[in-house]
Amino acid sequence: MSTKATLILNKEQIFQKSKRIAYQIIEDNFDEKEIVLVGIADRGYVFAQRLKNIIEELVDNKEVILIKVTIKKNKRSLEAVTDLPIETAANRAVIVVDDVLNSGRTLAYALGAFINVPLKKMRTAVLIDRSHHQFPIFSDYYGQKLSTILKENVRVYLEEFDNKEDAAWLE
């Protein structure tokens, strides 16, 4: 495999994709007064914060609640911790947010954290969907669908977390 990286999305494109996803979330939740964005630590949470800011700039009649979920990805069973009580999402529309959807394990674990909470609906939002799903998890909102081989890696840099300019690279 080559060590050369290919730019998938630059800073401007990431912003455009983020804004489009925010519009889709608003349209899909037009009748909702409150939306809960659940950002998967770390980059998913940063991406969720950005979506929250964009949604709040676009509409003023929605409360956007942000929850950070931390998943222990190397475990074979669900271990997730949230910064707000899970019940905060009760009877609300919930969107689970991550930077990249690959196998679906991380999103499945994040969704599982809310399994015992009555929700109006649950959706997923990702910046990049790689389409290597091993779990029955699909992105409801996505910035870019990308067909890759399994050996390739998609790396997303978000300025707030990585201290680098926003970019998504195929390595």
Automatic annotation (TrEMBL):
It comes from the Bacteria. CDD domains: PRTases_typeI. GO terms for molecular function: glycosyltransferase activity. Keywords: Glycosyltransferase, Transferase. SUPFAM superfamilies: PRTase-like (SSF53271). Residues 8-147 form the Phosphoribosyltransferase domain. Gene3D superfamilies: 3.40.50.2020. It holds the Pfam family Pribosyltran. This is Pyrimidine operon attenuation protein/uracil phosphoribosyltransferase. The lineage of its organism: Bacteria, Pseudomonadati, Bacteroidota, Sphingobacteriia, Sphingobacteriales.
